[in-house]
Amino acid sequence: MGTCNCLDVFLVRHGITDWNLEKRYLGHTDREVIKSELTRLDNLKNVLATTSFDSVYTSDLRRCLETLAYIQIPAKASIDTRLREINFGDWEGKNYQQLKDKQAYRNWIDNWENNPIPNGETASQFKARIDSFFNLCLQQQIGNAIGVKKRILIMTHGGVIRYLVSTYVPSTSFWDVSVKHGQATRLTFKKQKGEWLCSSLSAEPFQEKER
């Protein structure tokens, strides 16, 4: 038995919630998706229906679980709290207009990695839990023979996807990454000299523009 040396990772952002529509910061607060908005995921649902996944992982928050249930991936999902969005602390439920005059917020916007969120999660804490999940996820991808391609799907949040893409795709910064609700971002990894390297980035079809 050899190891898989090619891996497709589908990173999917959950469907839209009321706070998303209102442009409010939504981290660990457990809001549900807007049921009437789920049909916007139908194009993605149809694309993913033609793909066989070896493993499926999801955040434990309702907006991810409800989205995953809607797109009906025929594989049992592993629920992992490490896939949660960053904890926005005092900023949970607030929008830009409510925060724009606060110095701590302006500092965070300018440099989110070195300026903490009041009573929230630091960048280092956020990165550490995502790295912990994803590094283990990569290590566990074992195929029946060398050359076998495996596919995994991860249902998660915008900040998590931004971090993973900016970490593995060269010359891509955190804020450069655009992540639509219900859109799949596919990263293709190849294992070279014992290390997983991202060889391509693509977005799966998504018909409607973000509001």
Automatic annotation (TrEMBL):
SMART domains per the UniProt record, alphabetical: PGAM
The keyword Hydrolase appears for this protein: yes
Superkingdom: Bacteria
UniProt cross-references to InterPro entries, sorted A to Z: His_Pase_superF_clade-1, His_PPase_superfam, Phosphoglycerate_Mutase
Keywords: Hydrolase
Entry keyword Methyltransferase: no
PANTHER family on file: FRUCTOSE-2,6-BISPHOSPHATASE TIGAR
Name of protein: Histidine phosphatase family protein
